[in-house]
Write a structure and sequence with these properties.
This protein has one domain: GidA associated domain, C-terminal subdomain (DNA polymerase, domain 1, Orthogonal Bundle). The protein contains three helices and no strands. The protein has helices at about 15-20, 25-30, 40-60.
Length: about 60
């Protein structure tokens, strides 16, 4: 799914720009992008988990 990285608070500007340009398909791919720090990956994973939980709650 296409993410709007500007919606993810806590991501550094450089990480947002790189992720938006490269559009990785997995967190593993994102973690290998130069300029994306482990902290950025952590923020991204928390965001994705929140999105997943939100969608699950919407279905019930």
């Amino acid at each position: 799914a296409d993410l709007d990285y500007n919606d993810i608070s806590g991501l550094r500007l450089e990480a947002r720009q790189k992720l938006a340009k490269i559009k990785p398909h997995t967190v593993g791919q994102a973690s290998r992008i130069s300029g994306v720090s482990p902290a950025d990956i952590g923020v991204l994973m928390v965001y994705l988990e929140q999105q997943r939980r939100g969608e699950n709650h919407a279905e019930h």
